[in-house]
Amino acid sequence: MIEQLEIQATHNQVPIKAHLDFTFVSAVGQPTVRILELKSCESIPSTLYSSYETQVYGQVGLLRALWDQPAFGVNGEPGRAECSGLTFPELCRERLGVEMPADASLVDIEAWVLCLSMSEAKAFGPYLPDKSMLGLCLQTAVELWTLTDEVRSNGGDIFEVPTAKGFHALCPWCEFNADCPKFEGVDQPQWCPDLERLATLKGELARLDVEISAIEDGLKTAYRLSDVSGNWINADNQRFRVSSQSGRRTLNREQLRWELAAIMGEDKTEAMLARCESEGKPFERLMVSKINNRS
Q1: Do residues 145 and 172 share a domain?
Q2: Contact 149, 80 (CB under 8 A)
Q3: Total structural domains in the chain?
Q4: pLDDT in tens, 194-219
Q5: Is 124 exposed, middle or buried (0-12, 13-18, 19+ CB in 10 A)?
């Protein structure tokens, strides 16, 4: 395994550098290379984001296209000198002691993306070297470089540079979000009272949730300390008691996938799970973001 493999190239006078999280190499039997890109997600997506796919297509495409060129290296590690300017077979020989073919067409090359959340993980792939996809990735890099160079060198207007629209969870805390082009929109100040009222109600709801939990916990403790043998406790015009409830039953999808794959094989398992999955109806989501005026 090679961590943080670097691939450097120049395309149409634009410098390109790819960073690969993990690259697995094997010369046993059919020579193979597997690229693994790790992504940390709040929740696992049902389909991979296009930006992730673009990145991994660029990585696997560059690996295949530059296989026999001195474009590969690894950043220096503590106690270990960095290496660069090697072909991929040379790098494998120097770093791993593994002999790889000089011709990339003799190697089975795939890339995968592993999305990780706090509770689950999901792999997407395989992504294979594709000249058309690599061309799109390189063209995107050229466009980004050209726009950046125009702003830096020729006094271009940064506000005319096209930007990706969207919302990130950290945006409300950014001190520059007042004039951020990601939030380009129209002024309708008449909605300010409703938005402020909504924020106030949400704050009250959070406070009430804490207060409700504290009272419920106190009553549960009082019931456990009262020797009432499972009977109700009457309190004026109300009564309460505590009873044991069965835990929620959950399905471990990954465990089910492994069990089915051992019986049916991987392909039949994926097809079967796909037939059993359903997607809910589209819904609307209100997104509210604070504008941080620095004046």
Answers
A1: no
A2: no
A3: 2
A4: 999 999 999 999 999 999 999 999 99
A5: buried
